[in-house]
TrEMBL record:
The lineage of its organism: Bacteria, Pseudomonadati, Pseudomonadota, Gammaproteobacteria, Vibrionales. Its cofactor is Mg(2+). Pfam families: Gln-synt_C. GO terms for biological process: glutamine biosynthetic process; polyamine catabolic process. GO terms for molecular function: glutamine synthetase activity. Belongs to the glutamine synthetase family. The keyword Magnesium applies. It comes from Vibrio inusitatus NBRC 102082. SUPFAM superfamilies: Glutamine synthetase, N-terminal domain, Glutamine synthetase/guanido kinase. Residues 116-447 form the GS catalytic domain. It comes from the Bacteria. Keywords: Ligase, Magnesium. This is Glutamine synthetase.
């Protein structure tokens, strides 16, 4: 890997004081896992790192999901992982860098067909063969919260560092409010630049202590997803330095807005023409075909892009969160929004996923609709704000059941969908075995 050796050389020149390197891989939830090595051993990473195949199937607590069939049953076999290009960066720790890993098979000759980043890369190659080049951008919401919790374990809203009071007021797009968090935001922006993240700034969102970080449009979809992994880790690290916790839970507070991750997509040809627009400026047949595919796949895809029980608590009517499989232009209450733009920049904004989504899975779901578009006609696209639009599933078990019979396995992979379902059914079963304080409060003396 000559390219990696050159990256290492450049990295050492730019960051000579780095002593350790975190080797980061992502599990099925998009959670960064890995190991820390001395910086002097960095060159060896280019030859490959052996990691258990079962690391793909770690649950939200970091345990191997044995029902997925990649653990003890197979003898915990290793696969070979290699560095991801352009992911060798510093971190918020002054003496520590990091590099992302992608997984090959045990012979190190073929990409592992179960690793979602590889599946996304395969989709991109299929589209390239059709002279279609997706251009995507992400919007990521998150909360800063207090490191302390209530006696019952609930989250506490952040203490405003400038006013020294606990956040409570909703101030959407509050520019002055950003000044109160200047220390956090300045450090975040400085390190985001050092990590070459393609961001376009942060803004105050629609709840106390909630923020959004926007990423610019890019034709390098894999890199865009890598950046979400890097950015989430960075936000957590910088938040901790400023005595906050950062959370990407879809619904951390019952009485406040949830956190989403919206994905924008346009489709270009090799000459950078927008395939969603015609020469006369009107939307193209492909635009309507893709929209129809998105609508058709939406119910089946919820189980993939809403991966946790908490994900479904975000779907509250009237909270600018979609509850139906519908679309419209310049409307934030729908699943698929068409933002105001000129024909060159016509795009679709996918608004269903929460901030807890695995970015590679979200991108793969979006691209599945592009791959399926030729199965639909322009005339099949329902009208905007269709009153007959189907309701989206609101419970995890319902969403997983719909995923199991959906057409997404044709475009993502049957093997991955099966692996994912095993992991998520296991997590859901464990969650449902837990006895909550609400049950005790309601039923201790009444049942």
């Amino acid at each position: 890997m000559e390219w990696f050796q050159q990256e290492v050389k450049n990295f050492r020149q730019n960051w000579p004081n780095i002593e350790f390197i975190d080797l980061i891989f992502t599990d099925i939830n998009g959670t960064p896992r890995g190991k820390r090595i001395p910086a002097e051993a960095l060159e060896k990473v280019g030859k490959g790192i052996a990691l258990p195949l079962s690391t793909i199937t770690l649950d939200t607590k970091g345990n191997v999901v044995e029902s997925a069939g990649l653990g003890e049953e197979l003898g915990e076999p290793d696969n070979i992982c290699f560095p991801v290009p352009a992911s060798l960066t510093p971190t918020a720790r002054e003496n520590t860098g990091q590099v992302l890993l992608t997984m090959m098979d045990d012979s190190a000759t073929q990409p592992s067909p179960l690793f979602i980043r590889n599946i996304l890369e395969k989709q991109l190659k299929q589209l390239k063969d059709n002279n279609q080049y997706p251009c995507m951008a992400f919007e990521l919401e998150f909360y800063l919260v207090d490191k302390e919790r209530t006696r019952s374990g609930e989250l506490l809203k952040a203490m405003n560092p400038a006013k020294n009071i606990r956040e409570k007021n909703t101030e959407v797009y509050d520019v002055d409010g950003l000044d109160d968090y200047d220390g956090f935001l300045t450090d975040l922006n400085t390190l985001a630049q050092a990590q070459n993240l393609n961001t376009s700034g942060a803004l105050s969102e629609s709840a106390p202590g909630q923020f959004e970080i926007n990423f610019n449009h890019s034709q390098d979809v894999l890199r865009s997803c890598d950046e979400i992994i890097i950015a989430k880790r960075l936000i957590r690290q910088v938040a901790s330095k400023h005595n906050f916790d950062a959370t990407f839970m879809a619904k951390p507070f019952a009485d406040e807005a949830g956190s989403g991750m919206h994905a924008h997509i346009s489709l270009l040809d090799s000459d950078n023409n927008n395939l969603f627009s015609q020469d006369n400026g009107e939307a193209s047949p492909l635009f309507y075909q893709t929209m129809t595919a998105m609508l058709a796949q939406s119910a089946g895809s919820i189980g993939l892009i809403c991966p946790n029980v908490n994900s479904y608590r975000r779907f509250v009517p009237g909270a600018y969160v979609p509850t139906k499989a519908d679309w419209a232009t310049n409307h934030r209450g729908v699943s698929f929004r068409v933002p105001l733009s000129d024909p060159k920049n016509r795009r679709i904004e996918h608004r269903i996923a929460g901030a807890d989504v695995n970015p590679y899975i979200l991108a793969a779901v979006v691209l599945s609709s592009v791959l399926a578009s030729d199965q639909y006609t322009q005339e099949q696209c329902p009208p905007a704000l269709n009153e007959e639009a189907a309701e989206l599933p609101r419970r995890m078990f319902e969403a997983l059941n719909l995923l199991e019979v959906s057409e997404l396995s044709q475009f993502i992979s049957k093997e991955f969908i099966g692996l994912y379902l095993a992991c998520k059914h296991s997590e859901l079963a464990e969650f449902e075995r837990a006895i909550t304080t609400t049950e005790i409060d309601w039923m201790l003396h009444t049942a």
